[in-house]
């Protein structure tokens, strides 16, 4: 193979004036993409604080294989356990009494000064490497190739319940009404496919603890919440390597509000009363 | 038609329904009670199916596999084990093991069918399974492989049994070989159904697929000794020198396999103690809710007592072997239960320390579940007792049943037929040639 004979020393500097806007844009885009891929992962891996249960890795935000890549960020501190999300979910998706698609867990503390209790909403994590999808013998449960939602094709479900045991988030139950396993589908059938942009639970949440959106859209709130350095973001049971799409954070810091309002980070003096 | 059937039954050494008519009333009552129990099981199971399993079964969202899956595992483990033990003889040529082949393969088929009876009442949509297993297979699912391979296994075993009856040794050997390979693949996949659920630390890992194979061989040895000694009680004529030799050989193999399983169990306990999630389950088996299951049934009835009794029996005290292996069958059932149910007792959210997941999840089998499990087990018992009479105790060596032109092979004890102009030796060579 021959290389073209170029003498770099004799080349003339063309200057930046001759670079077209299009070229410049492409170059910047490439840079952003590379930075984004690495930074997204690194930010999360650096900012993990929650020890064993919540150690986060770079795996789950390295890239977004779906478009729109639906995701939910749960700002745990904002949850007040009003269960409006659970009611909305049950109503929207006709969930029978004996089942649930989402629930709110309670963690109690003895020795903390600020809080004695914390509420953790849980639902299907719509994992990128979903164990339930691998376990299903008849492909009745599958990753939607467009949105990444883990959905059910009820008529194929034989009811062997392997997926219920494979799921590390206890997100599945057998619905006698559907004659199949039932689970959260981000309200795809009842809302999203009909043009709505929010799930039943996220629109019912009075405090904004549940934030639903599209991770591939940099303007989306979910993207902004996940891609910030100030507050740690984690996922549940990262040790299972399922690459979940439900992200958790405390979510009560001023800096996050600033990000959401599109402002730059401003320092607020705690001594100074606003 | 009837004439040819009579010929076949003569050739295969069957006694048919006549044998049942000649049985003692006590024997018929025993069979009748198993038939009634099976019918009651079907009735209760169907009732559960119509009213909805979630109303009548004890399984829940968290513990979704209960006594039915345990009973299914028990049946298929025993079935695979019978295939493994019998294959030592008629596939790999271990002469001492040959006389058990017919009974072992027959019981292997029956145990498999019993297992399918049980799983029928566990799977919510069994009819969809037949369709979508074929038209929408998921090749990365262990459940799919397990179901498909067990289906193939059953087919091979049935063909093998046919060739055993037909005295076609080379083909029965070939089918036995395929059955063994497919059976072991299917059974290790059953272990992997549990072992590849990485959200369940008690199950996750290569331990279960490996353990299942050794455990199956142990169950097979136990089961064939139990059904043979029980058959000896029913009809003492089935025992002869060759069968006594076979029992001794199986007894030795089973003693070895029980020791292997004791070794496996010790290391399961010891390694489980150092991992937090596993140790919760292990401690509940050692000192908690499952202590009686574990110590009394799994360890004492399933391992220690049979090991002691089998060693004491020296392989020729059949009464002792019958009691040892009979009690061991009960112990083995609990062994399966202790894998399936405790593996689900720790909630997936336990490690987060939330209020909802602090306590271990409880499961108690409901009446419907127990009856549905008894359905499968009674079908097995009924078929066993019917088979002992109608198939003439699976015997190969009764002079009365040797038809014209046949002789008893000194090598395998089966009836062979000489072709014209053939000597006995030539016929034996022809029957025992490897394809």
Task: Tell me what the structure shows.
Chain A contains 8 helices and 10 strands. Chain A has 274 residues and is an alpha+beta fold. Chain A has one domain: Alpha-Beta Plaits, CATH 3.30.70. In chain A, strands 8-1-10-9 form a 4-stranded mixed beta sheet. The longest helix of chain A is centred in the N-terminal third of the chain and has 27 residues. Chain A is globular. The N and C termini of chain A lie far apart (70 Å). About 7% of the residues of chain A have low confidence. Chain B is mainly alpha-helical. In chain B, 50% of the residues are buried. The longest helix of chain B has 33 residues. Chain B has 16 helices and 2 strands. Chain B starts with a helix and ends with a helix. A two-stranded antiparallel sheet of chain B has the order 1-2. Chain B has 2 domains: 366 residues, Up-down Bundle (Formate dehydrogenase/DMSO reductase fold), CATH 1.20.1630; 34 residues, no CATH class. At the A-B interface, β2, α4, α5 and β6 of A face α7 and α8 of B.
Indicate the CATH topology of chain A: Alpha-Beta Plaits
* Strand composition percent of chain A: 15-25%
What is the CATH top level name of the largest domain in chain B? Mainly Alpha
Give, in order, the helices and strands of chain B.
HHHHHHHHHHHHHHHEEH
Average pLDDT taken over every residue of chain A: 80
Parts with pLDDT < 50 across at least 5 consecutive residues of chain A: 42-60
Sheet with the most strands, sense and barrel status of chain B: 2 strands, antiparallel
Helix content of chain B: over 70%
Unreliable stretches of chain B (pLDDT < 50, length at least 5) are 397-401
Shape of chain B: globular
């Amino acid at each position: 193979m021959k290389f073209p004979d170029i003498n770099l020393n004799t080349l003339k500097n063309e200057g930046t004036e001759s670079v077209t806007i299009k070229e410049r844009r492409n170059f910047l885009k490439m840079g952003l993409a590379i930075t984004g891929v690495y930074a997204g992962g690194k930010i999360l891996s650096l900012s993990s604080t929650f020890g064993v249960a919540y150690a986060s890795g770079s795996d789950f935000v390295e890239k977004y294989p779906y478009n729109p890549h639906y995701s939910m960020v749960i700002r745990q501190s904002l949850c007040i356990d009003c269960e409006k999300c659970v009611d909305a979910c049950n109503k929207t998706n006709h969930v029978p009494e004996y089942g649930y698609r989402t629930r709110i867990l309670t963690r109690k503390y003895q020795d903390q000064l600020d809080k004695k209790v914390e509420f953790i909403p849980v639902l299907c994590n719509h994992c990128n490497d979903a164990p339930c999808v691998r376990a299903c013998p008849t492909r009745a449960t599958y990753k939607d190739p467009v949105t990444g939602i883990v959905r059910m094709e009820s008529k194929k479900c034989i009811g062997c319940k392997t997926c219920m045991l494979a799921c590390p988030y206890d997100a599945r139950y057998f619905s006698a009404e559907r004659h199949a396993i039932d689970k959260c589908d981000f309200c795809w059938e009842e809302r999203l496919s009909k043009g709505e942009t929010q799930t039943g639970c996220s629109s019912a949440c009075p405090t904004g603890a549940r934030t639903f959106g599209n991770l591939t859209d940099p303007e989306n709130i979910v993207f902004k919440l996940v891609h910030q350095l100030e507050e740690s973001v984690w996922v549940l049971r990262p040790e299972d390597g399922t690459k979940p799409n439900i992200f958790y954070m405390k979510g009560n810091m001023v800096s996050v509000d600033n990000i959401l309002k599109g402002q730059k980070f401003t320092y607020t003096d705690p001594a100074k009363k606003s | 038609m009837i004439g040819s059937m009579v010929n076949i039954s003569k050739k295969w050494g069957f006694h048919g329904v006549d044998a049942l008519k000649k049985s003692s009333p006590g024997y018929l009552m025993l069979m009748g009670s198993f038939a009634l129990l099976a019918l009651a099981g079907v009735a209760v199971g169907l009732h559960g199916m119509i009213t909805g399993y979630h109303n009548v079964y004890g399984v829940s969202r968290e513990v979704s596999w209960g006594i039915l899956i345990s009973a299914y595992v028990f049946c298929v483990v025993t079935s695979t084990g019978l295939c493994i033990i019998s294959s030592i003889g008629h596939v790999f040529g271990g002469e001492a093991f040959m006389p058990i082949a017919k009974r072992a393969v027959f019981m292997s088929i029956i145990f498999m069918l019993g297992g399918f009876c049980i799983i029928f009442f566990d799977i919510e949509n069994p009819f969809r399974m037949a369709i979508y297993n074929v038209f929408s297979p998921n090749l990365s699912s262990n459940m799919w492989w397990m179901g498909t391979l067990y289906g193939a296994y059953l087919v091979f075993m049935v063909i093998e049994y046919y060739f055993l009856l037909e005295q076609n040794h080379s083909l029965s050997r070939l089918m036995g070989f395929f059955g063994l390979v497919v059976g072991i693949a299917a059974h290790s996949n059953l272990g992997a159904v549990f072992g590849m659920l990485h959200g369940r630390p008690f199950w996750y890992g290569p331990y279960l697929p490996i353990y299942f194979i050794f455990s199956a061989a142990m169950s097979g040895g136990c089961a064939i000794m139990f059904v043979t000694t029980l058959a000896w009680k029913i009809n003492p004529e089935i025992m002869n020198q060759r069968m006594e030799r076979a029992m001794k050989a199986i007894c030795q193999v089973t003693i070895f396999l029980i020791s292997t399983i004791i070794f496996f169990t010790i290391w399961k306990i010891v390694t489980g103690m150092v991992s937090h999630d596993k140790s919760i389950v292990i401690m509940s088996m050692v000192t908690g809710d499952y202590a009686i299951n574990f110590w009394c049934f799994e360890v004492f009835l399933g391992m220690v007592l049979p090991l002691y009794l089998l060693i004491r029996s020296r392989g020729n005290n059949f009464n002792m072997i019958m009691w040892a292996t009979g009690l061991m069958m009960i112990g083995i059932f609990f062994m399966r239960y202790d894998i399936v149910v405790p593996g689900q007792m720790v909630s997936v959210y336990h490690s987060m320390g939330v209020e909802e997941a602090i306590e271990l999840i409880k499961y108690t089998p409901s009446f419907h579940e127990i009856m549905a499990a008894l359905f499968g087990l009674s079908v097995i018992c009924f078929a066993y007792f019917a088979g002992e009479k109608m198939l003439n105790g699976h015997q190969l060596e009764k002079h009365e049943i040797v038809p014209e032109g046949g002789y008893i092979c000194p090598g395998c004890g089966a009836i062979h037929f000489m072709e014209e102009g053939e000597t006995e030796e030539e016929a034996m060579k022809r029957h025992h040639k490897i394809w």
